[in-house]
Amino acid sequence: DPAIIVLVYRDDVPGGACLMGRNPRFPEGMYSTLAGFVEPGETLEQAVSREVFEESGIETTDVTYMASQPWPFPSSLMLGFHAKATSFDIDFDPNELADCRWFHRDEMTQMREWVDAAEGELRLPRRDSIARWLIQSWLDGG
């Protein structure tokens, strides 16, 4: 089952910002990139734009494939992307996300590691995840 995962960024603010969501199942304070399954008959790029819009209300362009990672839950291949936001007002789906917000680059560098964060501290996804790789590649300027 192909699934997309995407780091959505904006470059209209100094230093840039990226869109992160918090799934209700995540530990408190953990935010990650957005993800979802590819529907039959749509391209991967269409899936990225659709999922981002459904979950956050944000429209995207310049969808760029970055990398993939096998994901055994349930039995998927995660296809990682970066996408540029063309709208900025978040209207997230509370059935999908507990929270969704823009994080400036300097805020991202202050987030704690997944395992090191105290209760309620903002934390990044695990280092072995494609979500974290997408975040780090964006932080590194990629």
Topology diagram in text:
Layout: E1 2-10, E2 17-22, E3 34-37, H1 44-56, E4 60-71, E5 76-85, E6 99-104, H2 105-110, H3 130-139
Parallel strand pairs: 1-5
Antiparallel strand pairs: 1-2, 1-3, 2-6, 4-5
Description:
This protein is an alpha+beta fold. The longest helix has 13 residues, at 44-56. It has 3 helices and 6 strands. Strands 1, 2, 3, 4, 5 and 6 form a 6-stranded mixed sheet that branches.
Give short descriptive properties of this protein.
142 residues; alpha+beta; six-stranded mixed beta sheet; 6 strands; globular
Unreliable residue runs: none
User: In one word, what is the shape?
Assistant: globular
Share of β-strand residues: 25-35%
SSE ordering: EEEHEEEHH
Could you give a short account of the major beta sheet?
A: 6 strands, mixed
Structural class: alpha+beta
Tell me how many strands there are: 6
Percent of residues in helices:
10-25%
Radius of gyration: 14 Å
Instruction: Report mean pLDDT, rounded to a whole number.
Output: 91
Report the total helices: 3
Distance between the termini: 27 Å
